[in-house]
Fold:
Amino acid sequence: MTDSNAVVAPADADERRAAPPIVCYRVDQLAAYDQAFYDRLKQGMTIISEVIVDPRDASCFEVPAGCFFRIVSVEGSQVGDLNLWNKNDLSERFFSGKTRQLHASHVTRGDRLWSNFPSLRPMATITHDTLEWYGWDADGAGVHDVIGTRCDPYTNHRLNGVDYHHCCHSNLTRALAEHLGISLAEAEPHVHDVLNVFMCTGFTNDSKQYFMKASPVRPGDYIEFFAEIDLLGDLSACPGGNCGSSHSDDSTPCYPLKVVVYQPVVALPDDWQSPAPSGYGGGHGT
Structure:
């Protein structure tokens, strides 16, 4: 039977496909990553807070501008979903899509986590990553992705027809509501696309579908950030555990994660300040 909707490739199809790829954004005008600056600040740090994020749950934490925080694997291979906001203005929040465009599909040391419009500025800079060695594997997977959104009860119900209340979206919503003393309905609109911490993901070679595989994270591994602005963070210990088999259920072994916030002993330079918001005037052509 002939498919009446089949499209025949044009004669110059190969020529069209041969167009060279062009990186969408030139980032050479952005401030260069200054490893020596961050290393100097880390020459002696004091722990000012620690939070344990229970399995299949989430917890909030606060990080003053100029401090560091680490997300640490403490008991077993476990991934986490991270939301960040400007502590003083929740309308400014992490923008995973623009972070992906300015850096890559997966982030590591030297990359920044950018905020949404209209501010579009670095919220945090990754200053250490014990999984930096992983790079890209034979499947095309990397670690710490800004591709996936977060597991959520709406998609899960659509696909599986069940209510599951410990997806990362729900975990993040509960934790934010509790931290701010607001209702779930008030908290949920603030929850946004995440940084998938420790998660190992990519796109399949044939169908280009988003895939996950068992995370290489082990107890003692961590990713470290410098807070460029005052931050409110919210971290979920994903119900998928190391995301090597399933998620959005209780069938996978899960482990806690730890967040540690550090205050540098070394003083910041007198001229240091948080990055300014985007200089765009907001006229939009009118």
Q: What stands out?
A: The longest strand covers residues 45-53. The chain has one domain: 49-264. The mean pLDDT is 97. The CA atoms of residues 176 and 182 lie 8 Å apart.
